[in-house]
UniProtKB/TrEMBL annotation:
Name by which UniProt lists this protein: TetR/AcrR family transcriptional regulator
Gene3D superfamilies found in the cross-reference section: Tetracycline Repressor, domain 2
SUPFAM superfamilies to which the protein is assigned, alphabetical: Homeodomain-like, Tetracyclin repressor-like, C-terminal domain
Keywords: DNA-binding, Repressor, Transcription, Transcription regulation
Coiled-coil region: none
Keyword hit for Ligase: no
Regions recorded as binding DNA: 34-53
Ranges where the HTH tetR-type domain occurs: 11-71
Biological classification of the source: Bacteria, Bacillati, Actinomycetota, Actinomycetes, Micrococcales
Length: 196
C-alpha cells in the first residue's frame, strides 16, 4: 500500500515540476531558465529534480508536451484548422519563452534522430498534418476549400508558415504571426460566390 502512495506522490511531484517549469520558461525564457531555477521553485535539488526525468533534454520535451496538453484543452472557437492555428499562434505571443524553447528544440536539437526531442517533434508534426488534412478534406467536401488545393499540402504549408513566423517573431516581435497564417488560409479557402 505504501508503494502505491509513493507512486502517486511521484506522479504528483512530476506534474508539479512540469507546471512550474512551464510557468518559469514562459515568464523568463528558455535560455534564462535553468534546472537549478526549476529545482529551487519546487523545493528539490537539481539531482532530485532530474530523478523524475531521464535527462535535462527529456524535461524540456515534457514541458512542451504539457504545453500541448494545455493548448489542446482550450476552447479556441475556431471555424477551421487555419483559424485554430492562427488562434494558437496569437496565444504564443503571450508566452515568448515557450516559443523560444519550441524553436530552439525543433530547429536545432530535435533534427538529430538521437536527441530525446526528435520523436516528440516527428510525432507532433505527423499528428498535426493528419488532423489538419482530415479537417481540410471535410471543408473541401463542404465546398469551403478550393477543389484544386491539396489538403495535405495545405496542412504542411500552414505548419511551416506558423513555425517560420515564430522564428521571425523572435527576431522582431512586431511581426504578426497569425496574420501570415490567415493570409495563406484566405488564399486556399473558397468563399461562396453567387453566380450571375
Amino acid at each position: 500500500m505504501a508503494r502505491r502512495g509513493s507512486y502517486a506522490k511521484g506522479i504528483a511531484k512530476r506534474g508539479e515540476i512540469l507546471t512550474t517549469a512551464l510557468e518559469l520558461v514562459a515568464q523568463r525564457g528558455f535560455r534564462r531558465t535553468s534546472i537549478k531555477d526549476i529545482a529551487d521553485a519546487v523545493g528539490l535539488t537539481q539531482a532530485g529534480l532530474l530523478h523524475y526525468f531521464d535527462s535535462k533534454d527529456e524535461l524540456w520535451v515534457e514541458i512542451l508536451r504539457r504545453r500541448d496538453e494545455i493548448d489542446l484543452a482550450q476552447d479556441w472557437h475556431a471555424s477551421d484548422p487555419a483559424a485554430l492555428l492562427a488562434a494558437i499562434v496569437r496565444h504564443n505571443t503571450e508566452v515568448p519563452g515557450l516559443v523560444q524553447m519550441f524553436v530552439n528544440l525543433s530547429a536545432a536539437a530535435a533534427t538529430d534522430p538521437e536527441h530525446p526531442a526528435h520523436e516528440y517533434f516527428r510525432e507532433r508534426y505527423e499528428r498535426n498534418r493528419r488532423e489538419f488534412t482530415s479537417d481540410f478534406r471535410q471543408m473541401q467536401e463542404n465546398g469551403r476549400l478550393r477543389a484544386d488545393v491539396d489538403p495535405e499540402h495545405l496542412a504542411s504549408v500552414l505548419l511551416a508558415i506558423s513555425d517560420g513566423m515564430q522564428i521571425q517573431w523572435l527576431y522582431d516581435p512586431t511581426r504578426d504571426m497569425a496574420e501570415h497564417v490567415e493570409l495563406v488560409a484566405r488564399l486556399a479557402i473558397a468563399q461562396a460566390v453567387p453566380s450571375d
